[in-house]
Amino acid sequence: MSTRYHADALHKFASDLFASTGLSRERADVMANTFLQADLMGFTTHGLHRVASNLQWLKDGVSRLDGEPEVLQDRGNCFNWDANFLPGPWVLNQAIGQALDRVSEYGVVTATIRRSQHIACLAAYLPQIIEKNCVALLTCSTPAERTVSPQGSKEPLFSANPIAFCAPAGDFPLLFDISMSVTAGGYVARAEREGKKLPAAYLKDSDGNLSDDPAAFANGGSILPVGGADHGYKGAALSAMLEVLSMGLSGYGRADNTQDDDEANSVFLQIIDPRAFGAPQDFLRQTRALATLWGDCAPDSDATGGVRVPGQRAWALRQDQLAHGVRLYPTIEEDLKVLAVQHDRDMPAPITDQE
Length: 355
Description:
By secondary structure, the chain is α+β, with helices and mostly antiparallel strands. Helix content is 40%, strand content 15%. The strands form 3 sheets. The protein has a 7-stranded mixed β-sheet with strand order 2-3-4-11-5-6-7, with helices on both faces.
């Protein structure tokens, strides 16, 4: 059984690391909370795992320590910012705050951000939106990245292009965060680090042959789009749509010189207030019914975990870990201990059996 840590202690530890670079405490707290929220819901490849890379970007000046995003367009119900490499978790939280402040007036608020430093786990931004009883659609793309190959090609073109969605639905929200690739790059990197094969042939090698070996990707291969080898044209079409929403509407992407942008993102955000369309209880009655009917579907004969309703497991895990402590993925715990030594910080004390 892995060690548990108090969520507050992990938050303070990560915030202290970010603040040690000269980043303001307010911004450090926002970043730390974003990464923690991911691990609370089980999105372990893009949570506290990303502290090390974000810390290095701040130290090297790749991420800006201060300054504000440039407002390129603002019509009230929609706006476009140029983040100019501000820390992604901080700048996206600022945009969400703006959208939530405006949505009661406009009903629907849409925002785009160009040149935001990597925003990590999209699901991590959703709890604050659920708490306001709103619906959200969030996606991002990475202009400098080509890791996912279109159907019928061995050459990568798209980035992983995740999309996240949330809607209030009663006891738990409908909530998901999925990429438009069969598997996320974070899982490929984790498998390579642990010396494991992928569960199936999710990759192509540089010659276009299907593979389950992470080395195929590391050596110039690509990840298959959603739909896999047979129906990947569907995932490729969705990838194109998400790049239009994020890169196209923000005005920065494939048409530009992005080779030095590394993991910086183009972002699309839309927040919807159901009250703009009718009585909130009518909306909740429909979403609650959908979630209930979904969960009550008869499971397959070989199903081990029952029917999976998106959001149910993540929300329950979040509540449990807030109450009883966070169980870190083993390699994340290892990496945080290394950062503690490197930065002369005390690793948070684990929760004891007596607590």
